[in-house]
Specification:
heterodimer, A: 343 residues, globular, B: 287 residues, mainly alpha, MetI-like fold, 2 strands
């Protein structure tokens, strides 16, 4: 077990070093002078240029530069944004909660629909219902979500006027930041005393369309996974035994089969994390959602390389950590693997 | 090899989804090939006085089946030429990623050791970043444009092919026919390409189809973000992005390219799914 954990840890560290290296190279591979790219100015006088070069350490050998860069990153110094002149880490911290809130709501939405749909499709295998659900989920999986978002805006916001078009909360509400998650911050007692539940509803209404858009592909993937996972489990001996014992179908499906079908579903859920970040880049762009996806896209158009470098590095680190965590959860959920490792 | 394709075509005909996908793909291919004959106007031809006309409008002697865009270009013609761009993008991504991925997968699986470790680790790095984000990073370095977007999306697709072929090689390389070839004194090159590779074909075809749809979708997404094809190229994602500000007044400008992307991606996913069912012996026996 320890050996396995150690191996996983080493793999993670290696991947992290690799990613740091790729991000480090990023600025140096972009055509143009890295000094000017990092300072964000075009015509500097030679003295200031040399000073900036030395300050950034760009006059040192490349390996030394990489070691310096890694050291800086470990200290939490990810550089300074060229456009806002703020620290990249501060900018990230400001925007990250918006993406977290959107992702969580999207995943909850996806899971709430995907699991029942998948189970029903498996139980009614090869019926019209099954074909319809799986056909729809394939269409959902193939959906260009940047178009899907616009279609939903057109229908629900423009035609029906039910949901707001963009932003996180109506402009009239000014909520003091605690967690950065508006759904939670809007319930603080100070806000509730002043405005009641109105800010909470406003935040929720702003979340509806973006989370449907962001949750569409994970929903489709999870529904298909749930179906195939259930079909596999329903054919197992212990399910047959449970049925033979005379247990009710509900009990067989929800207790016996569900627990075991859950393993691949949880893994898929976690694998959706990458899809979610990709989706967040597009969703946040469509809905002007002030999260890290929109931040990265804006910095690309502004050619703000320090921000791109830092932002990409943080996202990659989060993903690598999540994937490692998923591996561990997977082992915990799968007794066969756990026992094999404990031996 | 002939038997393989005969059986494959029989399996596709049995699978309604795959058949539907294949028919749709053929339709789009025909539209793309005959775009110059079918389109009433050149894709970047501006027709005077025809600003944002809704689909089915007749103006003087001109008929606009899908309407026109904000500077008076015929949308039907642009979408037809767009199918050329999209199919070419998908094809380029699959050819690039599959050839390079297959080569690396073969080397990693066959030689093992350091070759395998280096290749597998490199693939892990690529997979550690979400596809569009990684593509964005590459485009940030190379600069926006259709060719750079294709390169970026191909690199992102690389690990799928490499890992697939590697796993397949690992399963095949100790089988008797490979050992027999080795005993006969066949070179590594011959064993890899003449013995092992043909046995990796089935999963490669499935991944090719799914990779095609990913390629089209990711390139369209980059186009939408302004990092892919640049105006006036009639690329669907870029067209959709340019039409965003007219969503309320001229929704067809947004919806038609969106539907085209959805249909092409869906058709390759349908085909890929059907092929997987047909070619995966485990799934086949279960059915």
């Amino acid at each position: 077990m320890l050996l396995f954990l150690g191996k996983k840890f080493m793999e993670m560290i290696l991947t992290l070093i690799g990613i740091t290296f790729v991000c480090f190279l990023l600025i140096r591979l972009v055509p143009g002078d890295p000094v000017l790219l990092m300072i964000g100015e075009r015509n500097m006088d030679p003295v200031a240029y040399e000073a900036a070069k030395a300050k950034l350490g760009l006059d040192k050998p490349i390996l030394v530069q990489f070691v310096d860069y890694t050291g800086q990153v470990l200290k939490g110094d990810l550089g300074t944004s060229v456009t806002s002149k703020n620290s990249v880490w501060e900018e990230f911290k400001e925007r990250f909660p918006a993406t977290v809130e959107l992702s969580i709501v999207a995943l909850v939405f996806a899971t709430l629909f995907a699991i029942p749909f998948g189970i029903l499709a498996a139980l009614k295998k090869n019926t019209f219902f099954d074909y319809f659900l799986m056909g729809t989920s394939l269409a959902g999986y193939s959906m260009p979500i940047f178009w899907w978002g616009l279609v939903l805006i057109l229908f629900f916001s423009v035609k029906l006027g039910w949901t707001p078009v963009s932003g996180r909360i109506a402009l009239e509400y000014d909520i003091p930041m605690q967690t950065g998650l508006y759904l939670i911050d809007a319930l603080q007692s100070s806000v509730r005393e002043a405005e009641g539940f109105k800010p909470f509803w406003s935040a929720l209404r702003h979340l509806i369309l973006p989370s449907i858009v962001l949750g569409t592909i994970p929903l489709a993937v999870m529904a298909r996974m749930t179906r195939s996972s259930f079909l596999e489990v329903l054919g197992e001996d212990y399910v047959r035994t449970a049925r033979a014992k005379g247990l009710s179908e509900k009990r067989v499906v929800l207790i016996h089969a569900f627990r075991n079908a859950l393993i691949p579903i949880v893994t898929t859920l976690a694998l959706c994390f990458g899809t979610i970040i990709t989706g967040a880049i597009l969703t946040e762009t469509i809905f002007s959602w002030p999260g890290i996806g929109k931040w990265i896209v804006t910095s690309i158009t502004a050619r703000d390389y320090p921000t791109i470098q830092g932002g990409v590095l943080i996202i990659a680190v989060i993903i690598v950590l999540t994937n490692t965590l998923v591996d561990l959860i997977y082992i915990y959920l799968n007794p066969r693997m756990k026992n094999a490792l404990l031996k | 090899m002939k038997d393989f394709f005969l059986e494959l075509s029989r399996d596709i005909r049995k699978n309604k989804g795959a058949l539907a996908g294949l028919v749709l793909i053929l339709v789009f291919m025909l539209l793309a090939i005959f775009a110059p004959l079918l389109s009433p106007y050149a894709p970047d031809q501006v027709i005077e006085g025809a600003l944002r006309l809704p689909p089915g409008t007749q103006l003087n002697n001109n008929f606009f089946l899908f309407g026109t865009d904000d500077i008076g270009r015929d949308l039907f013609s642009r979408l037809l030429y767009g199918s050329r761009v999209s199919l070419l993008v998908g094809l380029s991504v699959v050819v690039l990623a599959a050839s390079l991925g297959t080569l690396m997968g073969l080397l990693a699986g066959y030689f093992g050791g350091w070759t395998d470790r280096v290749i597998s680790r490199a693939m892990d790095f690529i997979m550690a970043l979400p596809s569009v984000l990684f593509a964005i990073v590459i485009v940030a370095v190379l600069g926006p444009g259709l060719v750079n977007a294709i390169v970026a999306v191909s690199i992102v697709a690389l690990p799928n092919f490499t890992r697939l072929i590697r796993a397949q090689v690992l399963a095949e390389k100790n089988k008797q026919y490979v050992q027999a070839a080795r005993l006969y004194g066949a070179s590594h090159l011959r064993i890899l390409f003449k013995e092992i590779l043909p046995n990796c074909l089935a999963p490669l075809i499935v991944q090719g189809s799914l990779g095609f749809s990913d390629g089209v979708l990711n390139c369209a997404a980059l186009g939408f973000l302004g990092l892919g094809a640049q105006a006036p190229t009639p690329e669907w994602g870029t067209m959709l992005s340019d039409a965003r500000s007219f969503l309320e007044t001229s929704p067809w400008m947004v919806n038609l390219p969106g539907i085209c992307i959805l249909l092409v991606v869906l058709s390759f996913n349908l085909l890929g799914d059907g092929l997987r069912d047909a070619l995966d012996p485990r799934l086949k026996n279960r059915a």
